[in-house]
Specification:
With 111 residues, this protein is mostly helical.
Length: 111
């Protein structure tokens, strides 16, 4: 009988950032479900599509992804006026900025 080797998942800063952005995208997608039409749903899903596109395009280039996620977080402050409410600022805008910093300062293990 052969023993199976346990593969340990390496917890790195890059993996944490990727998991956080996926969770964040799921959170902001929830806000799209309050619309009754398909076009309204797609319009409300534009931030999710932008974050998803950034994640897919720059999966192996964390420095570029970090800069873009931080800029997208700053963009949410301007577009959604999150500076008016501190809680909304932290939930909607600070999370992508934090994720961008995690991506930017992570060490890519393959390079």
């Amino acid at each position: 009988m052969k023993k199976k080797k346990n593969k340990k998942i390496k917890v790195t800063q890059l993996n944490i950032a990727r998991e956080l952005i996926i969770g964040y995208m799921l959170l902001i997608t929830l806000f799209s479900f309050d619309v009754k039409t398909l076009t309204g749903f797609l319009i409300h899903s534009i931030p999710t599509i932008i974050f998803l596109g950034t994640l897919i395009l720059f999966w192996k280039k964390p420095k570029i992804a970090g800069i873009l996620f931080a800029l997208e977080g700053l963009g949410t402050i301007i577009v959604f006026n999150t500076y008016r409410d501190l809680f909304v600022l932290w939930v909607i805008s600070f999370v992508p900025i934090l994720i961008g910093l995690l991506f930017f300062f992570s060490k890519n293990p393959k390079h």
